[in-house]
Amino acid sequence: MTTNVTITPSSVEGTIQAPPSKSYTHRAILAAGYADGATVRDALWSADTQATARAVDLFGGSVSREDDGTLTVEGFDGRPGVPADVIDCDNSGTTMRLVTATAALADGTTVLTGDSSLRSRPQGPLLEAIADLGGGAESTRGNGQAPLVVSGPIDGGEVAIPGDVSSQYITALLMAGVVTDEGIDVVLETELKSAPYVDVTLEVLADFGVDARATDEGFAVDGGQSYSPEGGSYAVPGDFSSISYPLAAGALAGADGVRIEGANPSAQGDTAIVDIVDRMGADVDWNRDAGVIEVSSAPLSGIEVSVEDTPDLLPTIATLGAIADGDTQIVNAEHVRYKETDRVSAMADELGKMGVETTEKRDSLTIHGGESDLEGATVAGRGDHRIIMSLALAGLVANGETTIEGADHVDVSFPGFFEALEGLGVELERAE
């Protein structure tokens, strides 16, 4: 059942706990699957991460969730079995990329699919890499998109792959390479986009006792290693992609301040949102030792921001730009078009319905905040959690009510998003 949410302009104040990181949770669940087992604490249990858990189950492990939210994972100990069913990754691109490489380790054939959005996203470079490593990897439609058919096992080796389509290809190969005989040496053919996400992978691998490293040409991991976190347990940090929404809410409508707890430093590139909000003029303070961010609203000014390494921040920045004085230029953004939806066009179109002037180019989006009056409107969530949450922020400061169609898709990364807004004082209504 599709849910529409109507936001009434509201001020926000209070304290919010940062949701756990989706990126870290995906990697931790799969790393625990590659191990003989582990406990994953503070995990995000969302539609996307549940897709990764289901894949671990199908490869011969099991993931169970305790009453306190802790995940108990029984792993397949580096030797994934051939799944007894198709792996349905639903809407999760991270799941599909990461477990496609896992499938290449199984001694047999795995079929992977997903929803209509996921079946439109590019997987070709990863399929080619698996084939170059001696596996079988095909798109059923021959277009580099799911459904995918993957056969193994691969033993490892050196492989070349582009770095400017998705960093998840590199993550997938490194995680699988750990348990191969030879290891995997990834040579980047083009400049790496979204580089901090590979840093996240290296951080999680290190926490699971695995040695992987950057090289002059890319990244490498030795084979014959095993996944084994210290004490058999791993704790997921807070998610800065999700933190960007209450942080931006405070910058837009938090005259009395918003306090965000659980904002501990990590390798996440999206920590950049703290600096971006500060540069635009909001009053923000991040106590890194305590993991606390305090933010309150102030007049915002447009700036130029590169999202080369932080693609998930584009919708949030675009909404901030709609309120800011002057132009906000979001550059190095072409790879943001290959997410759950084309987020560059989606933000231009949906903010346009609210009276925001934009200039869209292939690699950039400019928000003309000084030429725009933000008006309440009915906007489409586009089946994309980040579009929905960013448009909800716009609704806080628009003139009149804003209705977001298909708002239930926030479950992908921030299941309690609208409840969190209500906790900060936002007036909203849900309708099915």
Automatic annotation (TrEMBL):
Q: Indicate the segments forming the Enolpyruvate transferase domain, all copies.
A: 9-421
Q: Where does 3-phosphoshikimate bind?
A: K22, S23, R27, S166, S167, Q168, S194, D312, K339
Give the pathway annotation: Metabolic intermediate biosynthesis; chorismate biosynthesis; chorismate from D-erythrose 4-phosphate and phosphoenolpyruvate: step 6/7
Q: Where does the protein end up?
A: Cytoplasm
A GO CC annotation given for this chain: cytoplasm
Query: Quick one: which residues bind phosphoenolpyruvate?
Result: K22, G93, R121, Q168, R343, R386
Would the keyword Cytoplasm turn up in this protein's UniProt record?
A: yes
Keyword Transferase carried by entry? yes
UniProt xrefs under Gene3D superfamilies: Enolpyruvate transferase domain
Instruction: List the GO biological process terms.
Output: amino acid biosynthetic process; aromatic amino acid family biosynthetic process; chorismate biosynthetic process
Q: What is its main location?
A: cytoplasm
Please give the Pfam families that the UniProt record associates with this protein.
EPSP_synthase (PF00275)
Task: Cite the GO molecular-function annotations of the record.
Answer: 3-phosphoshikimate 1-carboxyvinyltransferase activity
Query: InterPro entries from the entry?
Result: Enolpyruvate_Tfrase_dom (IPR001986), Enolpyruvate_Tfrase_sf (IPR036968), EPSP_synthase (IPR006264), EPSP_synthase_CS (IPR023193), RNA3'P_cycl/enolpyr_Trfase_a/b (IPR013792)
**Any idea of its EC number?**
2.5.1.19
| Catalysed reactions listed for this entry | 3-phosphoshikimate + phosphoenolpyruvate = 5-O-(1-carboxyvinyl)-3-phosphoshikimate + phosphate
Q: List keywords of the entry alphabetically.
A: Amino-acid biosynthesis, Aromatic amino acid biosynthesis, Cytoplasm, Transferase
Tell me where on the tree of life, at the top rank, the source sits.
Archaea
Active site positions, chain numbering: D312
The entry sums up its family as follows: Belongs to the EPSP synthase family.
Complex formation: Monomer.
What name is this protein filed under? 3-phosphoshikimate 1-carboxyvinyltransferase
Species per Swiss-Prot/TrEMBL record = Natrarchaeobaculum aegyptiacum
| Gene name, Swiss-Prot/TrEMBL | aroA
